[in-house]
Amino acid sequence: MMAENTESTVPVTDGAAPEAAEGQRRGRGGRGGGDNRGGGGRGRNNDRRPAQEEDDGTIEKLVHINRVSKTVKGGKRFGFAALVVVGDGQGRVGFGHGKAREVPEAINKATAAAKKSMIRVALKDGRTLHHDGKGHFGAGKVTLRSAPAGTGIIAGGPMRAVFESLGVADVVTKSVGTSNPYNMIRATFAALSEQTSPKSVAQRRGKKIADLLGRGGSKTAEADAEAIAE
Fold first, then answer.
1. What are phi and psi of 167, to 5 degrees?
2. CB-based burial, 60-92: b 16+ in 10 Å, e otherwise
3. Helix count and strand count (H, E) for the chain
4. 208 or 220: which carries more pLDDT confidence?
5. Tens digits of residue pLDDT in 12-40
6. Per-residue pLDDT reduced to its tens digit, 56-76
7. In which region does residue 75 sit, left (phi positive, over 0), alpha (psi from -120 to 50) or beta (all else)?
8. Residue 99 and residue 83: Cα distance in Å, rounded?
9. Do residues 103 and 82 make contact, with C-beta atoms less than 8 angstroms apart?
10. Is the pTM of this model over 0.85?
11. Is 142 exposed, middle or buried (0-12, 13-18, 19+ CB in 10 A)?
12. What residues form DSSP beta bridges with 176?
C-alpha cells in the first residue's frame, strides 16, 4: 500500500509542479514585470513611430525629465514630467512639457505640446540673431548676443538645446538668477520673441531697408538691404 501511494502521488506532484511554476511565472509577469515591460515596450514603440512616420526634419531634444511621487494609501505612486524642445533648424522653435506614469508617454505629450507652440524667429544670414536681446521669467534672466561666424553656440544646457533646434550656429548667451531649466527656457523664449529683422521694421514704418541701414552708418547699405531682402 505504501508503494502504491508513493507511486500514485509522484505523477500527480510531477504534473502539478510545472503547472504551478507556470502559474507563478504568469502571475509575476501579469502583476509586475510583464505589465511594466509591456507598458514600456508600447511606450517606446509609440515614441519611435512619430519619428519614422513624420519625417519632416524636425529636431527634438529632451531637456529635462523629473520623477515625481504622490503618497497614497498603501504606498507611493510615481510619475514623470518631461521638458522637450522642438525645432526645424530654419527659424522655428517651440517647447512643451508633459506628465505621465511612464517616461515615453511623458515625452510624447511634451513633444506634441512643443509642436503646437512653435514660434518663428528672424535669423541673420540663417546663422545668428539680428540684434542683442534680454529675457526675464521668474528669477531667471538671460542675455542673448549676436556673434560673428565661427563663434559657435556659447550657452548652457537648456539654452543650447533651444538654439540647436532653432538653427542658430553663432550666439553668445548668459543666464543668471536660476538654474531651473523651465525658467531658463521660458526666459530664452521671451528674449527670442522680441527679435525683429530690418525687413519687418521697414515694412512697419513704411520705409526702405537701405534707409534704415544707412542711418546706422553702414557704407554698404544697399548691398546689405539686397542681402536681407533675399
1. 105, 15
2. bbebbeeeeeeeeeeeeeebbbbbbbbbbeebb
3. 8, 10
4. 208
5. 444 444 444 454 444 444 444 444 444 44
6. 678 999 999 999 898 999 899
7. left
8. 9
9. yes
10. no
11. buried
12. 141
